[in-house]
Amino acid sequence: MKRANAITGVVLAIVAILSLVVIIPWQIETGPQGMMSPRLVPQIMMGCILLLSVLLFVTNLGPDETGAPQPFSQAELRALALIGGIFALSIVLYYLIGPLAFGVTLVAGSLIGLGERRPLVIVAMPLVLMLMLWALFYKVLGTAIL
Amino acid sequence: MTTRRTVIATAAGLVLALSGFAAVAQDYPTRPITMFVGYGAGGQTDLIARASAKVLSEQLGQPVNVVNKPGAGGAVAANELKSKAPDGYTMLFQSNAVINAAPFLMDRVDFKPDDFEYAGMITAYQTGMAAPKDAPYDTLPEFIAWAKQNPGFAYAALSSEARMYMDAIAEREGLEANAVPVQSGSEMVNTLIAHQVAVAFSGGIHYRYPDEIKTIAPTTTFRHPSAPDVPTIEEAGFDLAMDTRTVIILPKGTPKDVIDKISTALKAAETDPDFVKVTKAADIPIMYYDAAAATKEMNDTYTKNKAILTGGN
Amino acid sequence: MEHVLTAFQNVFTGPALFWVGAGVLLGYILGAIPGLGKATGAAVAIPLTYYLDPVSALGLLIGIAKGSGAGSAVSAILLNTPGEPSSAPTALDGYPLARQGNAQKALKMGLFASVIGDFLSTIVLIVLAAPLARYALLIGPVELCAILIFSLTFIGGLSGGSMIKGLIAACFGIFFATVGMETETFVPRLTFGFLQLDDGISLVPMAIGMLAVAEMIVQAGNRREIDAQSAEMKDSDNPDDRRITGAEWRRCAPVILRGTFIGSVVGILPGLGASVGSFLSYGATKRASKTPEKFGTGMIEGVAAAESADNAVVPSSFVPLFALGIPGSVIAAILIAAFILHGLTPGPRMFVEQPGLVADLYVAMLSASLIMLILGYAGQRFFAMIIRVPLRLIIPGVLLFCCVGSYMETSSAFSIYVMLFFTLIGFLSRKLDFSFVTFLIGFVIAPKLELSFRQSLQLLDHDWANLVHHPIAIVFFLAAVVTVLAVARKQAGQSVEPIDIEREELS
């Protein structure tokens, strides 16, 4: 964790400097005279983050504890990539086909991705969930959500 | 079986398409209508929109579904409406300020009245300057006299129009004012009732608190039906009145007979007992304009507001 | 008094009781589903209120508000995915309890704390609405600014393992809260040209991404271990693991009372909301505890503190509504719309013009508390079984509901992008041990703090000497300074001579 903390400290310090020098001046205009500048609060926050991340870096110098677990396990990164990919695919289908395709892909895709292999479950679960939502919003409550 | 049905459906679709817009428009509406509201649920405009949707639905014989699309004072919803098919099945119920004021106040909004069609206006906002009930002034001139004796007084500003009003008055009369920013109508009411500010610019909700708050100057061209004795800002000698009304906005190119159908259906709201009850309880006056009058009002106020809001610089 | 009797008659014989029950049930279910919650429930209930009589309509809305507050504890405890941001502190101790096989105990404590907080706060509303609202008016922007600064001193205690990282997370929370149109200068900040960001990043999609979706990804990565653990987990033979023991009641009673008090006060103050209430209560309980280091590992007090305050906020946020006609929360704003729909003007005149209606409402609110207790108690045994379902069957459904909940906030796909953006941040902060609780507190409090600071500058006419007219503000400013000094001294003392502290505590 120490090494991860030190790296995080450096990354956050860079983020803070970038925000202070580039993003805040680019994305926030200076306000009118006689009022607190709209840039003030974001600048203070990024300034604090800069200070704290340097502090984080300094306090975590030195070798890692031996045998300490890595912050990111392979399995978790795989899960992030998997679910991220399913979301990406679902959103593409949302624009190409529609919200129904989005929901079905999201549910069926993550079922398969997480290791469900029974065809009945893979077909039934998206259908049942979509039907449930439709019944709840359109029939029971009578409001269109799309 | 399926194939045959598909063929029939396609053929029917073709016939419909060939028979042209007129025939389709005559049947309008044949399916549910979606009504966008550019604010979150529960506000003044949302309330009127839902009451109007109910009347429209009764008149047109199809459900009218209200969908809240809040963001940037309605500009997000109006942007989305632009991309919708001009067939009358998607409409936006909004304050006309999104088109006749927002472009002059927000850099990234550039709507013009010509970008949309208007099917009618139904209610007006009783915008104006409000003060605590026991304040020692009842009209704008009296307030100005008081303000000269009390430099550094505070007023609540909910929008940049509010700041514009006070800047214009202060500049002409040599007043010294502190603008207290507030985020919502209820917060504005709170500052008045608690006597934290001397005046506030209200969108009309202060009429719900007749025991605590009074109107000192409507910022509309007409006197408020809820306070007919109070002279307007124009009567006090400031040429700054800007009217805002709720309007049904449609995508550019919507067929005229569809617009007329909606316009006629909206007129029924004027006399609909439920609609009257709701607007009465909320102190919102009904002022119906048909499609033609609404379009004219939109163009006129756009020109006038442009002069007021950008005239100085 | 005769109004009260007729009110009981009206509510219990008419359709109102049914709608209150339906509201509580709907709210409880929506609250228990990660991703959906109060906002969803209220949005869908508005059209329904058109067709109901006033008491039924308002009962339905109040039922939803109360039910979802209690329901959100369920998903927080069982899945570590708070149904609403205000239940985030519930998950801190509730989820560890559930993984230790004490799911039913945690669920029961969550429910009882919710019901007690809600019931007592409703009583406060009924008895004290009018006088309290007048006092609440004394809390102007200057006082609010001082109170918010005071409440920020609790952040240190909630930052988890590392104070530095907790503070960094809080700074990021505040930073993201500045996105959108600044209220005083009307300058858009950090919107990158997106009009959708003009009103800021909305709390609901942000919290769903950060709390629910990110957690689901982490659990997806560890699903084999978690499923294996669940399969081994048995209801222990000891019934004490399923119910709340007398000793636990004694430990939690003062916690619940404190939570109720904090929640009620936060509810009355304008625009703070349930999240602030539950975070403050959790922080205060942790600070008052003799074993603060055990919080986060399955302390039943943590659940009691968060849930009692979370639910106490709801009724007391109606105080300004009933007494002055000013809505104190989103639900209250929607209630106003419902009042007006039925031709009623909310506010002090209601008591004079419609005393019967007000009494009906009070009775409806009290019965909502009781219905919540019955439904929740009946449901918890059933809910507790969810923990045994393999994760591969849970995660897809949760992801779908998260998308629906985010989408409904603005009816646009943009909310889903916001949700996914904060999913990534939530994932990184979980793995690198940055507290998302302090992030959320920063995000929730900062906009109010900045605005009230700007308001204060104007109200004080840019002269700090004018602060003498605001004694309440001075008290809170001083309290903030004293707390910071005390914490600093305690920490300094701890690192040098830990024994001294123990002696101090004993004496």
Topology record:
The complex is a heterotrimer of chains A (146), B (313) and C (507).
Chain A: H1 2-27, H2 40-59, H3 74-96, H4 99-113, H5 119-140
Helix pairs in contact in A: 1-2, 3-4, 4-5
Chain B: H1 2-18, H2 20-27, E1 33-37, H3 44-60, E2 64-68, H4 75-82, E3 90-95, H5 97-100, H6 102-105, E4 116-124, E5 128-132, H7 140-149, E6 153-157, H8 160-173, E7 177-181, H9 185-193, E8 199-202, E9 213-218, E10 245-251, H10 256-267, H11 273-281, E11 286-289, H12 291-310
Parallel strand pairs in B: 1-2, 1-3, 6-7, 6-8
Antiparallel strand pairs in B: 3-10, 4-10, 4-11, 5-8, 5-9
Chain C: H1 2-13, H2 16-32, H3 38-49, H4 54-79, H5 88-138, H6 141-152, H7 155-158, H8 163-177, E1 180-181, E2 188-189, H9 203-221, H10 223-232, H11 246-268, H12 274-288, H13 300-316, H14 319-324, H15 330-341, H16 348-353, H17 355-383, H18 391-410, H19 414-431, H20 436-459, H21 471-496, H22 498-506
Antiparallel strand pairs in C: 1-2
Describe the protein.
The complex is a heterotrimer of chains A (146), B (313) and C (507). Chain A contains five helices and no strands. Helices cover 73% and strands 0% of the residues of chain A. Chain A has two domains: 2-59; 74-140, no CATH class. In chain A, helix 1 (2-27) runs antiparallel to helix 2 (40-59). With 146 residues, chain A is an all-alpha fold. The two termini of chain A are 45 Å apart. Helices cover 42% and strands 19% of the residues of chain B. Chain B contains twelve helices and eleven strands. In chain B, the strands form two sheets. Chain B has a six-stranded mixed sheet with strand order 2-1-3-10-4-11, with helices on both faces. Chain B has a five-stranded mixed sheet with strand order 7-6-8-5-9, with helices on both faces. Chain C has one domain (2-459). Helices cover 76% and strands 1% of the residues of chain C. Chain C has helices at residues 2-13, 16-32, 38-49, 54-79, 88-138, 141-152, 155-158, 163-177, 203-221, 223-232, 246-268, 274-288, 300-316, 319-324, 330-341, 348-353, 355-383, 391-410, 414-431, 436-459, 471-496, 498-506, and strands spanning 180-181, 188-189. In chain C, helix 4 (54-79) packs antiparallel against helix 15. Chain C is an all-alpha fold. The chains are: A mainly alpha (146), B alpha/beta (313), C mainly alpha (507). Chains in contact: A-B, A-C, B-C. Chain C: Residues 17-440 form the DUF112 domain. Chain C: This is Tricarboxylate transporter family protein. Chain C: Keywords: Membrane, Transmembrane, Transmembrane helix.
